[in-house]
Design goal:
Elements lengths: L1 H30 E7 L12 E5 L1 H5 L8 E5 L7 E8 L4 E5 L2 E5 L6 E2 L8 H7 L5 E5 L4 E5 L9 H4 L2 E2 L3 E9 L7 E4 L1
Parallel strand pairs: 1-12, 4-12
Antiparallel strand pairs: 1-2, 2-11, 3-4, 3-11, 4-9, 5-6, 5-8, 6-7, 9-10
């Protein structure tokens, strides 16, 4: 009788573990995933040590990245590293940078200067206005152009090229700073 009770208790624990895994694994794989920022490439909006929850569901099932979204992705030159950057250029657009101004030419539209005042500080805009130029970069069907908000301290599409859609994990959904972070790190 005692053995039967122990066996039933053991089976209940196993069942509970299986149910928990059946719930947690799909959520972590397809819906939300935690990350930690490591570096200064997104300052002043995201700081090293910030804890992020990334929405992986939206880009997989609802819509594609939009201009201005802050995303986490596999670094194209080494997919073992996760990066965080802001989406600037969308598929089939042509991007150039002249005197620090980002110029976008949509596939079927008129060229325009990107207004970045909503996420870049005046100091940040002033600092890189004279130091960065980029010849025209034509994006492919599933390619994005991404930049760090701290333009002078960021490794981004200006240095390593366009970002394929397949590398994008998701959009930053929440940000906070825990005392003891224990998750994957997102690099500059």
């Amino acid at each position: 009788m005692e053995i039967k009770r122990l066996l039933n208790s053991f089976l209940e624990i196993i069942l509970l573990i299986v149910i928990a895994l059946a719930i947690v694994i799909p959520i972590r794989t397809y819906i939300f995933q935690p990350f930690i920022v490591n570096g200064s490439s997104m300052e002043p909006n995201f700081y090293s040590g910030d804890y992020l929850i990334v929405d992986e569901f939206t880009y997989n099932f609802i819509n594609k990245p939009r201009r201005g979204d802050v995303i986490v992705f596999d670094y194209p030159l080494n997919p073992n590293f996760k990066y965080i950057k802001r989406v600037i250029g969308l598929p089939n657009e042509t991007i150039s940078i002249k005197d620090g101004k980002v110029i976008i030419k949509p596939e079927n539209g008129e060229e325009f200067n990107l207004d970045e005042k909503k996420y870049l500080s005046e100091d940040n805009l002033r600092e890189w206005v004279y130091s960065n130029n980029l010849r025209e970069e034509k994006l492919g069907e599933s390619e994005y152009f991404v930049l760090g908000d701290n333009r002078n301290g960021s490794s981004d599409s200006r240095k390593w090229g366009t970002l394929p859609l397949r590398n994008i994990d998701g959009k930053v959904f929440l940000r906070f700073s825990p005392k003891e972070p224990t998750s994957q790190k997102v690099y500059d």
